Amino acid sequence: MITFYIWCCDPTHLPIPAEKPGTMRSSLTLAGTLWAFLSLVTAVASSTSYFLPYWLFGSQLGKPVSFSTFRRCNYPVRGEGQSLIMVEECGRYASFNAIPSLAWQMCTVVTGAGCALLLLVALAAVLGCCMEELISRMMGRCMGAAQFVGGLLISSGCALYPLGWNSPEIMQTCGNVSNQFQLGTCRLGWAYYCAGGGAAAAMLICTWLSCFAGRHPKPVMLVESIMRNTNSYAMELDHCLKP
Asked: Where does the sequence pass through the membrane (predicted)?
């Protein structure tokens, strides 16, 4: 009886999946690993540029001023004697309606949605480097399509941005000569180019690499894989416990 109990409970009798020591399971090919890395880079670049107020540079009251879609650095306030003084700090607008123009409000929503989509795909791609059977070829292509949509949204936001250059707040910063698609005395900042470059890379390079990302041709659900392994353990235990 004791021998039977030891034989049944010995873990060496249970099926253990073969795994090479020191290796990490991945559902991505070599091209898929490159795709995951570039997806993370483009998502971080676009999202960081979205939050930084360095899309547009100008000056007001002799002080440098910079904008993004919903943030601004250095702004005028009424001081003593109703004179204007510049507060040298960065911050976002008090409310969504306080954003200077309708075009910038639309740009804020569209660009933010695109950045969120790129970050979501990048997170799934990075997890695919560490988890087996997470990303198939079909899933990779679907994620590539989502990246194309995300890049398209960010590109649309960049295209909408110049439509707000005719607002009074921007004209005061750009020498009162700016207009739609006319900067006046202002200039575009590096964050604007970084956001557009990240969107372009996501649409062109990442979307193309996603077609070759998945290692398995068909999607395999993790739950089914876990249940399959669990059933094999249960069958072995049931076999050894039978008299």
From this structure: 34-57, 102-130, 142-163, 190-212
